[in-house]
Amino acid sequence: MMCSVTTLRHWLGRLGKDTIYLVTGLPMGILTFTVAVTGWSVGLGLLITLIGFPVLLLTALALRGLSHVERARAELVSGEPLAARYKRPEKSGIWERCKSVFGDAQNWRDLGWAILLLPVGIAGFTIAVSAIGAVLGLIFAPAWSWALWDTADPVDLGVFHVHDIWTAFAATAIGIAIAPLGLALVRGSSEATGALARALLAPRTEELEERVEVLQATRAGAVDAAAAELDRIERDLHDGAQARLVAIAMDLGLAQQKLDDDPEQARQLLAEARDGASAALVELRDLARGIRPALLAERGLGEAVQAFAARSPVPATVTADVGEQRMPEAVESAAYFVVAEALTNVAKHAGAKRATVSLVRRAETLEVLVVDDGHGGASADGSGLKGLRARVEALDGTLGIASPAGGPTMLRAELPCAS
Known about the structure:
- A five-stranded mixed beta sheet has the order 3-4-5-7-6.
- Strand 4 and strand 5 form a beta hairpin.
- It starts with a helix and ends with a strand.
- It is built from twelve helices and seven strands.
- With 419 residues, the protein is an alpha+beta fold.
């Protein structure tokens, strides 16, 4: 019983939304058609003067606003918002703005929809009113036809005449029988109109092209970040561990030469070589930790970040709510380095006394938040943040910073963490 009531409520709600969409299509079609035809006719007619071009520009902008209304109306049918994708001017200035408006294919699709909406709206309005009116008129025939039974002319419904209570109830039975057909007509008309609106006002090709552009930019950023990371590793090896290992080899060679003639000097050189080997080992361990910390691989993101925060010169409090299930390795590494870079920048530049780190996993998204009480003024275009942004965007994540003068500074990253 509950299932039947829920199903009935669903279909009544669906019918209501479809009906509103179809009925409002006619007035919206009249409005958009009037604006499009009037604006373009006047603009083209005055194009020989200086007035025509501004009229065309205002018409295009007005149609863009009406298209936003149409996208909102289409949500009644689609159940999801339709995204508008308009080109932004590459440079500032009125001329660049005008070029972006008239060179944008979406504005021309808006014009096409504005002209098509009038005949489509007339058809949808006629279907909705006729179908619903016919079904309701037949179902409620006993309620409205009783006053006409005593007249000389019975009510003519085409198939038969309503002239008494029995024929009225027969009309009710017919109305109930054809109700699914009326519902199908309304549903099909609204779905077809909504599909046409989606094709013109929010085409998938625009979304896919935008997605390809984003992927190209983020993948290029990831390649640059990887190249920079390799350069850093090579530089650290060359300037650090490699130099120490060369010094160790020289000390061992000298110690071998002096072993017979000056044993004391040889022992001193061996001690220096041992100290150099220990230092080289520490540098190699730090370098490996910079590539992927062992604690991160072994114990997970929460403990690795807490361990790093414990070594931070600025006292940092860590709150980690990442669940028991491990996230993909790339996501954990990116989140760890976001925190590490942020705390390093806090210690170097912020003049802060305290910092807080928050790791929260919500459904399929990991939120990383680092806040400090420093003097603020951090730039989002700094080299360190650019590298972090490239690393995060390569995983389809986002990274942003808010750092007003006087502080506080808040760095926030969101990473998709679905396995």
